[in-house]
Amino acid sequence: MAFLWVVACLALASAVSVLSFWVTLVPCASPAGCGVPAISPSVAYSERIVNGQNAVPGSWPWQVSLQTTTGSHFCGGSLINQYWVVTAAHCNFNPRAHVVVLGEYSLASNAEAVQVKTVSRAITNPGWNPNTMDNDITLLRLSTPAQLGARVSTICLAPANLVLPSNAWAVTTGWGRTNPNSQALAAVLQQVTVPLISQSQCMQYWGSRITSAMICAGGAGATSCQGDSGGPLVYQTGNGWTLIGIVSWGTSNCNINTPAMYTRVSQFRNWIDAVVAQG
After folding, report:
1. What CATH number does residue 183 fall under?
2. Is 273 one of the catalytic residues?
3. Does 229 qualify as catalytic in the annotation?
4. Cβ-Cβ contacts under 8 Å for 20 (sequence gap 6 or more)
């Protein structure tokens, strides 16, 4: 999926207003535990990724769609336990006007057994800075628990002390724009494999705006785009997956050769645990 955002702020609201795209592992209630999909994804790692591909239906069961109450997708998110979803702060989730949809694959289909959940609280990290896009993370508390199963399950959270290996690859997913020249969202869930980029390399593209709360990934022929914001960047360990990043920001034209930015989940692990513990 040639998807991404901009250095301003780009969640795709129903009318595409602002441009900005854009958890130690918590035990989960699903039989296999967090980060282990019942339906295996098909991921190809190669030295050069050319855009993205359709995901295997149900293979990223923690992926959620944030939608208006009229059904318009505007951001992604990740289910971290039966009651909590993590997304990007810049998605500006409003519990009175928005819902969380679980188990979605095709945005165009009305035949899928999705779960539509209202949200009782949206808690944004107190360090969130919309001017710099730093600390771009919000937690959403579902009004009723998610029903876990083959197509809806949780993702493991990166531990607070996580050190990612250099030259590692990760996967990001979402329904964001697949063509920078069109506002149309992807019809079905897309996935793309991206290389993780060091902070020093990233600064060659973005300068001092890069902080320790951000992970840089991509620039190898594929990227995230508007509508992908808030969605997951996951890293495979053994037979499971860990959420290491949240789609945050990037170039306004979804440039596939420029790395994009993801909120570094490990840096917020203690905050996440504290908020979730309060119930």
Report:
1. 2.40.10.10
2. no
3. yes
4. 5, 6, 7, 8, 9, 10, 11, 90, 133, 229, 249
